[in-house]
User: Fold these one by one.
Assistant:
Number 1:
Amino acid sequence: MSEKCVKCGEAVALHLTACPVCSTSAGFPNVRVAQSAKEADALTVRYDSAMVSAEALGVTAEVEAFEKAVATDSVAVMNRALGSLSSWINGESPLFYSFWHQVKYLGREPNESEWDQQRGAAEAAISPFYFEKINFAALTLDGHGMTYYGPYSVTLKSLMIEDRASVFDQNPFNFLKTHHIVGGKAPPSGYRAPWKLRGRLAVAKLQPEISPGKAFGDILMGPRRAEADCEFVEVHVFDAIHRLGIERIVGPMPTERVDRATWNQIVRKAKKLGVKVEVSP
Ligand SMILES: [Zn+2]
């Protein structure tokens, strides 16, 4: 897949960030892929089918309200352990880098979990050639993310990510399992969207869950957030995230004294950065 360079008209493959001939910026690969005709058309088919089902069930108004809520109020939330949050907020570098950047350049050791062992293959299948630059977050309406990855939910400022973020139907690892994708087979289209169309993607995925009286926040992301297989729409953010891109931090007061000192440092620095901090179990 490729598109034409806006400057010189030569083909620019979707995974590139700049034209290979004249170096003019081409945008963010994950967003370009999500905006490609193949992906957009396939998402429209899924969305239209969801709206037909909604009409048959008599819940069109609820589904439209859900889409609007997600399109305007949903946020990207990354979860961190206390130490990792501390390095981001107080460390020498203000940037949070992707897992693969950390492994390659910052000495991070992948662990022996199934996830760390297999994530490269899953991410490469969904985001070929550019997966190493992707940071992951969960799309939520309540600011509480996947505590499975760490108890501190970090909401990102939409302004800092909206041009470089896309949304994806599921965690890539679970997506490949759901769709029985084996090595060498391309994943199906229509399961991703640029940030501004996240409401459409959420409808295509979650329409069967929408019924009168059910809270939109609980439909978008279920309650089992401490479990690896909790369902959520995943946000893919291209490139590192600066600590000035943090809007809010929600998490528990640590019980150990040494951790409380770290937490207090985080709170002090967060206030200086203008980040809202909330203690919540
Ligand atoms: Zn060019």
Note: The chain has one domain: 30-279.
Number 2:
Amino acid sequence: MLARTSHHLFQPLLYQVATGILSEGVIAPTTRDVLAEQRNASVLLGEVTTVDLEARTVTASAIGQQTTYSYDSLIVAAGADQSWFGNDHFAEFAPGMKTIDDALELRGRIYGAFEMAEVAAASGRHDLVERLLTFVVVGAGPTGVEMAGQLAELSKRTLAKEFRHIDPSSARIILLDAADEVLASFGSTLAGRTARDLTRLGIEVRLGTKVVDVDAEGLTVESRDGSQERIEATTKVWAAGVQANPLTRQLAEQSGAELDRAGRIKVNPDLTLPGHPEVFAIGDLAAVEGVPGVAQGAIQGGKHAAGQILRRLRGEETGQPFSYFDKGSMATISRFRAVMKRGRLELTGYPAWVAWLAVHLFYIIGFKSQVQTLMHWAVSFVGRDRSERTVTEQQVLARLALEYLGEDFLRTSLRKPPGAAPSAPATDS
Ligand SMILES: Cc1cc2nc3c(=O)[nH]c(=O)nc-3n(C[C@H](O)[C@H](O)[C@H](O)COP(=O)(O)OP(=O)(O)OC[C@H]3O[C@@H](n4cnc5c(N)ncnc54)[C@H](O)[C@@H]3O)c2cc1C
């Protein structure tokens, strides 16, 4: 198991780390711990930079050191990255939510905005307060809906009584999407119900609205009729799109497989690459008819690929097509409110919320994390508090600082003798 992080991440609960309900350790146990009992599995840290299908090797880099590994069978499951639809510069001011780093950065930005608003109000700079207390979530899929719902609860329940110069419950929360519905993949009945629930929570739901520019102090949006509007908002969250991991380009070039618009690689029905029965591409980076980019697609794809490899090792026939079983979709809106769809069954409100809790608790890895999650949920959903509100300056600044210092920074600084001065940035731009 070769991966660029040492943890396994349960992405569906990232928004709860970002809003202070859960700690990062609960949703991201170390992969080494998860696989500790599996004696034939070895866990290695490394960012895969090159896959050579002809030579059957994978080259990975860990903290500046490159290693090449050979394989008999390869499963590529490197997932997807956030997509800003060709506007990567938006990321500076509107971070996405795909990693633990992203969630912690967002936590710092969200709680930091309330702190800065209090400072502004206390020092008489009331003109800044509205902008600091405006939160915009871009993308009204499950992640955006859950994030907007939690921002509303945070401002109205958790923080309501803690500040002296601002009223946190007056925070403006805007959920934007270029589509005509929230949760478009859930069908119009659940979409309509979700939009009504969000509005009742005080969230402004603005559909048919596209983001055309983002900066430190706000964003510009465009309506269907082409009219543009400026929204002043310090905190922006990007939950709008994903792009398959760039490794798919290498795999496509070498195998002749096609990529779809999201950069996902089109695989054979058995999830292998054309001409390479020993290489599987699964999960968010694979394009398979009828399989959505959700956790079940990845989990079931992983089981299929592993099953195929075992069959080959046992000398049995391989090449059976992957068949996907849709276990349904769900999203929480706020405390006690969720929507759920499974086949023709549609649930809303409290029953859907309880089902959501049960399913997510079941999929959290490890008994210890499950107990901790239950306790944190009790604190936030029965009570009003959040257990994980600590934020640090580095949470907010580290990503941008590392980008500024450039790619060579890590490698060169690690080679420096102790006490040497840090490298200067590559450019002063
Ligand atoms: C915020 C959020 C909420 C979600 N909510 C839900 C939900 O409620 N229900 C649901 O079903 N799905 C949900 N999803 C989608 C679900 O998490 C994904 O479909 C699933 O994780 C895909 O699994 P995967 O194994 O393909 O990729 P991932 O889980 O993304 O795993 C890919 C791994 O590969 C590593 N990696 C990437 N590139 C390299 C490289 N070059 N070298 C080494 N390692 C690399 C990554 O660090 C990562 O550990 C959500 C996703 C997000 C981001």
Note: Residues 100-122 form the longest helix (23 residues).
